[in-house]
Amino acid sequence: MAKYIIKRVLISIPVLIGVVFVIFFMLNVVPGDPVTLMMGEHIKPDLIEAFRERMGLDDPFIVQFFNYLKNALQGDFGMSYKLKREVSDLIFQAFPQTVKLTLSAAMVAWLIGIPSGIIAAVKQNTLIDRGFMTFSLMGVSMPVFWAGLLMQYVFAYKLGWLPVTGYKTWQSFIMPSIVLGWSSAGTIARLTRSNLLEIMKNDFIRTARAKGLRETTVVVGHALKNAMLPVVTMMAIQVSSLLGGAVMTESIFGIPGLGRVAVSAIGDRDMPLLQGTIIFTTMLIIAGNLIADLMYSVLDPRIRCE
Amino acid sequence: MSEQQNNAELLKITDLKTHFFTHKGVVPAVDGVTLEIPKRQIVGVVGESGCGKSVTAMSILQLISRPGRIVSGSIRLDGKELVGAGIDEIRELRGNKISVIFQEPMTSLNPVYTVGRQVSEAITTHQQVSKQEAKQRVIDIFKAVGIPEAEKRFKAYPHQLSGGLRQRVMIGMAMVCRPQLLIADEPTTALDVTIEAQILHLMKQLESDFGTSIMLITHNLGVVAEVCDYVYVMYAGKIMEQANIFDLFDHTGHPYTKGLLQSIPKPMAEKQRLYNIKGMVPNLLRLPKGCRFCPRCEFAMQECHEHEPELYDAGNQHLVRCFLYKNGGEPA
Lengths: 306, 332
Ligand SMILES: Nc1ncnc2c1ncn2[C@@H]1O[C@H](COP(=O)(O)OP(=O)(O)OP(=O)(O)O)[C@@H](O)[C@H]1O
Ligand SMILES: [Mg+2]
Fold this sequence. Notes:
The complex is a heterodimer.
Chain A: H1 2-29, H2 34-39, H3 45-54, H4 61-73, H5 87-122, H6 127-141, H7 144-158, H8 174-199, H9 203-210, H10 215-253, H11 258-267, H12 271-299, H13 301-304
Helix pairs in contact in A: 1-12, 5-6, 5-8, 5-10, 5-11, 5-12, 6-8, 7-8, 7-10, 8-10, 9-10, 10-11, 10-12, 11-12
Chain B: E1 9-22, E2 25-38, E3 42-46, H1 53-60, E4 68-77, E5 80-81, H2 87-93, E6 98-101, H3 115-126, H4 131-144, H5 150-154, H6 163-175, E7 181-185, H7 193-210, E8 213-218, H8 221-227, E9 230-235, E10 238-244, H9 245-250, H10 255-262, H11 302-306, E11 312-313, E12 319-320
Parallel strand pairs in B: 3-8, 3-9, 6-7, 7-8
Antiparallel strand pairs in B: 1-2, 1-4, 4-5, 9-10, 10-12, 11-12
Helix pairs in contact in B: 3-4, 3-6, 4-6
The structure holds adenosine-5'-triphosphate and magnesium ion (MG).
């Protein structure tokens, strides 16, 4: 088990370096001089030259990349052009909000998705099943911004139950996490349902019934753990879609998280800041995948024993 | 029938019909089966693949799932009716008074739990015992069914065990509550000949030690000859012949049974081959009009194509569903 964990962690290192490389390449080699872009057209050429040299922008690409990597490994992602602050500081200020938002959205997704999937499977082809599945389809197909505005209108503006925007109280996270988690909840509910129905056809389910177990024990005790295996994989994939959705959600609800930082970095053409947030988000995704993988191996002895 | 043994009867199935309601039509997998299992006996059920042996067995514990359903008939355990009984009542029997060894050892165990846990569960579901005691009993039963290193194997996951060991685990699970009736659906098909002999010995011992009755479903008439007291021969959802083990081999009645006997594999042959009576098992959706076997029967008469024969009494609890026995005793 420990060996498996170490192996998985080691595998993610080259993945991370590869991702940094691709991001760095895309943001630095694509046409357009970042300095001109940043400073505007009407700056004296010698000033630009001096700046380029200070930032090491005239070095060959590969040298720039390794310098960046070396600094990044020490937690130094450079300076924000626009805000004139350490990128790492800005990220560390923003990322707790994003983590809070994604984790609570994930909670919403699991706590709603898994039980509704189970209930829909057990009550297959009944009205309850159809109701749950319609609700989850709505979650999957409703765009985040639309659901967000709708909820703001109803619960904040009309009913006044919750704050419209903000991030300082836990109440202000309720709507954002529901909006963000709903679509994942829908996906998880559908996957849980279909897996559970598939698993229930297995011979070992008949064995469990033949032992005299209650149907609830058969479903929750014997089928669910097997059915959760693909769902856990799905959750790993959803870490990235949740983080992606967080960009939109943060903008709608005024949460100063990584998404907001990235969006304003794009607007300001603030290359180091954009680069830093993307790489940091990638790290979060890789970590999420790692956790999901470990959960998988806890659930499935066949992987654990390899 | 002359002898009445009502008091020694454990299970009595009367005119059981279990049908599958598929979109292609109704499949009468079990079509009016009457069968008795006396106390302390090993009763064999034989027949070609697809003739309804497993469905009959699964009907007893109501383990038939959709689109299948018991349509009519009666199943009595110690005189108590099971058809129409509540699910709680049936659950109380499952794994406790009646247990099953399934045909598919490779897939009948849950891959995500240890085998020890899965067998313990059979005990703790029906009895108030401590975890420790349950574990000890599982280890004991593992030893009894010949699983080497039983303590170590308690913690093993199914994928870590060979097919033979998994089947032993299944047998252990079925025996651990000392059932009154053990339904063994081809328990030794997946095992090699030596292990098969050990398992059969074990089952015989269970019968003699605890008075467990056994319903043994098999393809292998050699196995039947070795352990069974009485045998039912099934074909296309119906009982074609029933007799005690000596009459079945020495005074074989039905042409179908004769065919089965002729296709017993040679004792020395390594792999068992399937029966090869000429022709094919009929499609249950389109059964022939008269006797179900007559398209394949070399003795078929005009009558056989027109009417379905009943079970005729050939004496000594020997019944044959064949017009040759219409007048009882020896073939006409
Ligand atoms: N789920 C199902 N849907 C439709 N028909 C079914 C279903 N399960 C079983 N049957 C039918 O029931 C018949 C009897 O099946 P059963 O499993 O009892 O055969 P068997 O005698 O046990 O054969 P084998 O020796 O291969 O195990 C088969 O012919 C099959 O067509
Ligand atoms: Mg079968």
